[in-house]
Structures are given as C-alpha cells and as structure tokens.
C-alpha cells in the first residue's frame, strides 16, 4: 500500500509540475512600438528532393554580427531545422523602404554553378519572424494560394534570376496597453519576392 501511495504521489507531482511548463519561444510575445524584430532563416528545402541545405550555403547577404544559431525551442531541434539569424530587421509599427543590406561580391564560377543547380532543383527559402513562418501569397486562376516559402531563384528562358529584392508586410495584434503589440497567427507575416526593382522595399 505504501508503494502504491508513493507512485500516486509521484504521478501527481509530475502532472503538477508539467501544468505550467512551456517551451521557450513557443508562446506569443509582446513588442513595444519601435523595438527591433529580427527575421530568421531556416534550411533551404526543395519540393523536388529530400536534401536540405543551410541558407548560407548560397551566396546570400549575411548579418554584420556573423551567422549564429537561431533555434529557440526543443521542437525546432527535434525537427532537424537549421535556423539561423539573418540581416533582415524591422521596427515594430515603423514603415521603412529601400533598405540596403549588403553589396555582394562578384560570383565565382562555383557560386554561379551552385545557384543554377539550386534553382533547377527548385529550392525554396524559409523565413521566420517571431516564431511564425513567413507566407508568400500568389494568385492562380482567381484563387489565392499560400506558400510557406519562396523560390531561391527562377529560370526564365535560360536566364537565371535570384530573388534578392524582398517586400515584407507584417500584421500584428494591438494590445490595450499603450505602445504594445504582438505578431498575429501563423501565416500573417508575409514575404513577397519580385523580379527587378519595381515595388521592392527591401534589398538583399
């Protein structure tokens, strides 16, 4: 009987301690107006192959402070995600345009070959803001489609283009507290890539 009571007590303690447990980074965060919001990058993934690569395996702009691991919770680690910081940075409730990120070096023959291979293999970029996946919207035959990634580049008539001019639209929930807000549900952090400079707000 004593052993049974001990087991019951232990189980109760486990449930009691687990009641208030949460994974850091998995809950909504409040942001003061004007505070910085950092965009993170996940692994490059393909709809054509199972192999994934680090975002920085391609010659994209890197953060000034250097590339750092950006995983925040156990779930991201268990999923095998390779989340890293990025040079993309926003201010809460602040509209900004024509932001210059970096001047890329001239592509080497190896870099150009790798970019072509990744484009031909249909690799996609995955961005994260405040633990929410950035969503790309496209229209097809009158329907609005949602994508959780955007192409690293595209091949048009044997000419290769890299999507390095991005336009972001971030939607937020406003709190009753003064100058405080938080990100909305998954899918409401939008990223819209385009070819050329027209309509581009963020340069990469």
UniProtKB/TrEMBL annotation:
It holds the Pfam family EMP70. Coiled coil: none annotated. Residues 1-20 form the signal peptide. GO terms for biological process: protein localization to membrane. The keyword Signal applies. It is a multi-pass membrane protein. Belongs to the nonaspanin (TM9SF) (TC 9.A.2) family. This is Transmembrane 9 superfamily member. It comes from Gossypium raimondii (Peruvian cotton).
């Amino acid at each position: 009987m004593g052993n049974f009571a001990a087991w019951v007590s232990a189980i109760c303690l486990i449930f009691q301690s687990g009641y208030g447990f949460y994974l850091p980074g998995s809950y909504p965060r409040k942001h003061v107006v004007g505070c910085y919001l950092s965009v993170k990058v996940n692994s490059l993934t393909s709809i054509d192959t199972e192999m994934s690569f680090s975002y920085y395996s391609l010659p994209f702009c890197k953060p000034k402070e250097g590339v750092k691991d950006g995983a925040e919770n156990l779930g991201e680690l268990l999923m095998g995600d390779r989340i890293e910081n990025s040079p993309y940075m926003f201010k809460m409730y602040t509209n900004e345009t024509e932001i210059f990120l970096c001047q890329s070096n001239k592509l080497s023959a190896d870099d150009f070959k790798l970019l072509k291979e990744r484009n031909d293999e249909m690799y996609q970029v995955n961005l994260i803001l405040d633990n929410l996946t950035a969503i790309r919207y496209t229209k097809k035959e009158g329907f609005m489609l949602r994508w959780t990634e955007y192409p690293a580049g595209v091949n048009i008539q044997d000419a290769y283009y890299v999507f390095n001019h991005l336009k972001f639209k971030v939607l937020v929930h406003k709190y009753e507290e003064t100058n405080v807000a938080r990100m909305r549900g998954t899918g409401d952090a939008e990223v819209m890539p385009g070819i050329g400079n027209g309509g581009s707000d963020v340069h990469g």
